[in-house]
Amino acid sequence: MKIVSNIKSIGMALALGFFMFACGQETQNETNSAVDETQAEVSEANTEANAELNEAGAEANQEYDEFTGWVRTNTAKAETVTADEYREMRAEYNRKEAEFEAESSTWDEETRREWEEVKADWNEFENSVQKRLGKIDDIDVDVDVKRDNN
Questions:
Q1: SS3 78
Q2: Which string of b and e fits 11-39 if b means at least 16 CB within 10 Å?
Q3: Could you give the maximum distance between any two Cα atoms of the chain, in Å?
Q4: pLDDT, tens digit (0-9, with 9 covering 90-100), for 20-63
Q5: Helix, strand or coil, per DSSP, at residue 134
């Protein structure tokens, strides 16, 4: 009887150990699957975020390139620009300059250097136009007033 009892105890211990091992492997496999799924989702989210950042960066670079081209084209007109054209150009330049100045802290060193060159070219243009046309104010007053009590 003692032998049968010992065999039953050993059998129960082995069965319990086997079930524990089986449950542990299944749980581990499920956990690994969940981790893999989460990592895949995070990776996908990172890929999407990077794509959006790259797209935004490319868009910003395109705007910057277009603006620098605009500045270079218009600064070449220093000898022929009229006062009205100059006022319009200056207003556009000031608006765009404010936008780019706000973004310039995120630029690399080369882009900042190029931006300083663009601003220097514009300043040269302004000095040349003002030298040729005189001091041009932003306000253009065209008033036609009749006065009865002169």
A1: coil
A2: eeeeeeeeeeeeeeeeeeeeeeeeeeeee
A3: 137
A4: 666 666 666 677 777 677 777 767 766 776 666 566 566 767 88
A5: coil
Residues 6+ apart with CB under 8 A from 118: 67, 68, 71, 72
141, burial (CB in 10 Å: exposed 0-12, middle 13-18, buried 19+) = exposed
Instruction: Quote the tokens at residue 12.
Output: 């129960």
pLDDT band at 147 (very low <50, low <70, confident <90, very high): low
User: Using one digit for the tens of pLDDT, what is the confidence trace for 61-96?
Assistant: 788 888 888 888 888 888 888 888 888 989 999 999
**Based on C-alpha coordinates, what's the Rg of the chain?**
37
Which of 52, 55, 65, 58 lies closest to 111 in space, CA to CA?
65
* Distance separating alpha carbons of residues 122 and 74, to the nearest angstrom: 9
